[in-house]
Amino acid sequence: MQPKRLTATLLVLASALGAHSAFAQAAGVHRTDLVHHDLSVPGRETLQVRVDFDERAFAPAHVHPGEEIAHVLQGTIEYRLEGQPPVTLHAGDSLFIPAGVAHSARNVGSGNASELATYVVKSGEPLVTLVH
């Protein structure tokens, strides 16, 4: 690998680790960045992330600085959005989560679960902020 390409790769990985460090305490929740790119709209970027949940794993209440579309790839995940009743999604189902709405996710099926999360967010802000 060329030195410039290696440096760019390491910077992307370091950025991804920092952006997702809020979930470091969520046992059994594993995140993998797939795409991170600036949009043509100034001050906006998009990220696409695969989130894998071990059996019964829980991602605690958090918010994002923009919209999220969650698409369940495998298993069954229960989402709780602030002010709304819980929603249970199965593989193939999707959910739109508005900007700034606190939400959590839990693997409620047997076995592992996975989602593909696509974010359109404000550039330069933390992707995940835990809600206490």
UniProtKB/TrEMBL annotation:
CDD domains assigned: cupin_BLL4011-like
Record flagged with keyword Signal: yes
Segments forming a coiled coil: none
Cupin type-2 domain ranges (all copies): 51-115
Signal peptide: 1-26
Swiss-Prot/TrEMBL keywords: Signal
Signal keyword on record: yes
Domain of life: Bacteria
Record protein name field: Cupin type-2 domain-containing protein
Taxonomic source organism: Ralstonia edaphi
Taxonomic path: Bacteria, Pseudomonadati, Pseudomonadota, Betaproteobacteria, Burkholderiales
